[in-house]
Recover the amino acids of this structure.
């Protein structure tokens, strides 16, 4: 919230989406940036490589001579009026972002209006890590510019004010190298911003370049724009963007600006209103993300003994050996609820169990993992309150996921601790199984061989099993909703 | 070439013999064919003196029934006690924890006797990995393979990735228990559901059953194919219900193993405070359920003579 006013949801995500689509998809809006209601003077689009990387530029403001004439004749008052007209619109963007947490797939904005003027020149590092999942590399700072004039009528900033508000991010090549590095905790499908040199000559030629990198640090796309800079605009006229190909995303981008007249020397520059869109297709479903996030052997949390040599009828039937101690694990229902909410936001849902399957989902007192898709009528579920087994067929193969909140205590297992990991793979001549812990319970996901391993060695493909895991969603039935 | 009429006479004789045996009720589809009982008494040595004649009594009481077979002491080895030289890490033991994982289960074969022992390190076994873990050789149908004592082979050596298990030294092992049926005959010995539950998968040579009470998943490998028509994924089973036959199928196209079933129990375990999920040691659960089986019919515990080799050949 800024200016002491409550946030207003103006425009909304669909408008923001339209902004991105119009600005950076070739032909989508015929090169117009409708959001600001200024006619663009030019749009340049380039693409290259495997990834569909686009870069667009739009000159948004009125021509510089007109603005200068206004300032000369009517002084700052007119300038302020015009500036405010622009600023008002841009503030709406900021408030939308503030008021509405964005779902995955919706664009998000960093306007760099961190806190106050005291933040000026502060290094940008991880200030936006927690709120936006964005971190900045060396050389990035926050700049502050009010567009005010001192008593000698000299502007306090050497460049036009930021694209929104009074703050912008600046990259200094002396301390940070030729490019500003921006890392994203979750891959993004597109990034856009306005970019501006901190100085230059009227109509001087610059080259803006954005390079995108995937999660492995491999170069995954590049976007480049040559443009002629002019200073006397109401705000920065040049917008740049990069967009990943379908199903791909960037985990880092490097932004640079080079002066053509000086042998393409990297120069200092500013960016503002960094806009990025989390890659919808790259965002793993909650179940897969939770599996992937595991590190080290899963530890037993709170558990209650439900069978032991001292308790219960099991021991009475045994003649030589003691009954194993059996425990019931506690479920992390808060984590389950969070996963359910994430799934809902992503529009994920389980396939429908056949026959009486839903009955067993409903009696299960643990989160049930089910596939999102299965061949018609093949998803079967059976089990009891503590253990559920779902089996289905898809893509010409049989699968099974087995979940349980019961554990048997084994105390004399030789060498057990040395080989444990978060996910263990095993199999027989007929299947490959991945075992892991999730939400406190134990799960085993299996893919079966068609006609045995000899006939179908692909059934031992761990990557294929991983893709099956990515398709799982968590389901809670009637009993589970009581958080037993 | 044996005349068909002779074969029919032989089959009737065998069936009649089977009718005379005691045992649990079996479904009509269960194959009969138990061999006739074998004389246990050995002839006396020539140089031994004749035993004294029993005193003659005027009214001889009826001859008492022969004593019921009793399991010999030491009829089963300790949990985790593998055959020497058969563990992945040579010299190490298997899972020595004696706890019975599934007290509620019944023995997974319809009849006794049955023998928990190793296939590749038992008589006729060739060992593992080209002789690095040598086996004794000989005949698979050696009577010693169909006799006591039982031996745990959960942690028997296996080295490929699919045999990964957290519970055995070296991290890879057999992770199941091999069970030989009463005789070496192929595709005649019924396997039964350890508890009420559901068929959870039918593979090329395997059947999985999920237990409705324990929640454990039981895996039977080397079952004769095809299984009965009703044995399909999702089909309910009741405890003790026969569902498939033990066989020598190593894969869908190979009959290269001995007649036996590889039996696994799958579930979750707490080991040193960490959660393990996968195959659990079934040995003591089998010991206890076997005792239940033979308590109901002690004669079932007694080993029988093996039929001729050709009876144990794979039916074509």
């Amino acid at each position: 919230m800024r200016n002491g006013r409550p946030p207003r949801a103006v425009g909304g995500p669909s408008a923001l989406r339209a902004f991105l689509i119009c600005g950076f998809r070739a032909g989508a809006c015929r090169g117009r940036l409708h959001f600001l209601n200024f006619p663009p003077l030019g749009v340049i689009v380039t693409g290259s490589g495997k990834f569909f990387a686009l870069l667009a530029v739009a000159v948004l403001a009125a021509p510089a001579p007109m603005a200068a004439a206004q300032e000369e004749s009517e002084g700052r008052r007119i300038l302020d009026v015009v500036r405010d007209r622009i600023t008002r619109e841009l503030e709406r963007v900021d408030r939308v972002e503030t008021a509405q947490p964005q779902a995955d797939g919706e664009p998000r904005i960093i306007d760099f209006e961190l806190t106050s003027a005291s933040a000026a020149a502060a290094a940008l590092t991880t200030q936006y890590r927690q709120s936006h999942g964005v971190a900045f590399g060396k050389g990035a700072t926050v700049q502050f510019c009010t567009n005010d004039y001192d008593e000698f009528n000299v502007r306090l900033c050497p460049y036009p004010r930021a694209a929104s508000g009074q703050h912008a991010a600046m990259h200094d090549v002396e301390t940070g190298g030729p490019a500003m590095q921006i890392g994203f905790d979750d891959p993004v499908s597109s990034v856009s911003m306005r970019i501006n040199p901190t100085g230059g000559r009227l109509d001087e030629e610059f080259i803006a370049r954005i390079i995108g990198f995937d999660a492995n640090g491999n170069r995954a796309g590049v976007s480049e724009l040559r443009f002629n800079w002019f200073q006397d605009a109401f705000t920065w006229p040049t917008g740049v963007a990069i967009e990943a190909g379908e199903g791909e995303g960037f985990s880092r981008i490097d932004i640079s600006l080079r002066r053509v007249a000086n042998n393409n020397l990297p120069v200092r520059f500013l960016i503002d209103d960094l806009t990025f869109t989390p890659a919808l297709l790259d965002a793993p479903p909650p179940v897969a993300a939770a599996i992937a996030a595991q590190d080290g052997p899963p530890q037993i949390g709170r558990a209650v003994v439900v069978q032991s040599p001292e308790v219960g009828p099991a021991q009475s039937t045994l003649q030589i050996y003691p009954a194993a101690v059996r425990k019931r694990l506690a479920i992390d229902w808060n984590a389950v609820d969070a996963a359910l909410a994430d799934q809902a936001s992503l529009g994920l849902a389980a396939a429908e169990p056949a026959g009486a399957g839903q009955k067993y989902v409903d009696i299960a007192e643990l989160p049930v993992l089910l596939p999102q898709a299965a061949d018609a009528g093949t998803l079967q579920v059976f089990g009891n309150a503590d253990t559920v087994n779902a089996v289905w067929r898809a893509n010409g193969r049989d699968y099974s996921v087995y979940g349980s909140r019961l554990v048997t205590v084994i105390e004399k297992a030789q060498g057990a601790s040395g080989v444990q990991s978060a996910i263990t793979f095993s199999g027989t001549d007929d299947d490959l199984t991945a075992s892991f812990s999730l939400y406190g319970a134990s799960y085993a996901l299996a893919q079966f061989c068609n006609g045995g391993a000899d006939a179908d060695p692909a059934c031992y493909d761990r990557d294929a099993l991983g893709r099956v895991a990515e398709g799982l969603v968590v389901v809670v039935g009637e009993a589970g909703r009581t958080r037993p | 070439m044996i005349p068909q009429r002779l074969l029919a006479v032989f089959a009737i004789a065998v069936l009649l013999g089977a009718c005379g045996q005691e045992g649990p009720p079996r479904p009509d589809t269960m194959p009969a064919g138990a061999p006739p009982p074998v004389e246990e008494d050995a002839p006396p040595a020539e140089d031994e003196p004749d035993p004294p004649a029993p005193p003659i009594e005027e009214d001889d009481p009826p001859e008492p029934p022969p004593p019921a077979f009793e399991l010999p002491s030491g009829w089963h080895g300790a949990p985790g006690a593998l055959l020497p030289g058969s563990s992945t890490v040579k010299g190490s033991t298997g899972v020595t924890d004696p706890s019975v994982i599934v007290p509620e289960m019944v023995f997974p074969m319809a009849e006794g006797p049955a023998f928990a022992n190793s296939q590749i390190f038992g008589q006729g076994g060739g060992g593992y990995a080209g002789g690095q873990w040598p086996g004794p050789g000989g005949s698979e149908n050696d009577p010693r393979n169909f006799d006591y004592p039982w031996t745990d082979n959960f942690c028997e050596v296996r080295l490929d990735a699919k045999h990964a298990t957290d519970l055995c030294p070296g991290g890879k092992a057999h992770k199941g228990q091999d069970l030989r049926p009463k005789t070496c005959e192929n595709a005649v010995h019924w396997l039964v559901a350890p508890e009420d539950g559901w068929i959870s998968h039918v593979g090329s040579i395997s059947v999985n059953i999920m237990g409705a009470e324990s929640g454990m998943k039981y895996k039977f490998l080397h079952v004769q194919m095809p299984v009965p028509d009703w044995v399909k994924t999702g089909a309910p089973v009741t405890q003790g219900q026969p569902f498939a036959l033990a066989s020598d199928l190593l894969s869908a196209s190979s009959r290269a193993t001995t007649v036996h079933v590889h039996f696994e129990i799958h579930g979750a375990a707490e080991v040193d405070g960490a959660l393990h999920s996968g195959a659990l040691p079934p040995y003591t659960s089998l010991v206890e359920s076997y005792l239940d089986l033979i308590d109901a019919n002690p004669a079932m515990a007694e080993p029988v003579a093996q039929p001729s080799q050709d009876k144990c050949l794979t039916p074509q």
In short: Strands of chain B lie at 115-116, 177-180, 190-192, 197-202, 206-211, 217-221, 236-237, 242-245, 261-271, 274-280. The first helix of chain B runs from residue 4 to 19. The CA atoms of residues 7 and 13 of chain B lie 10 Å apart.
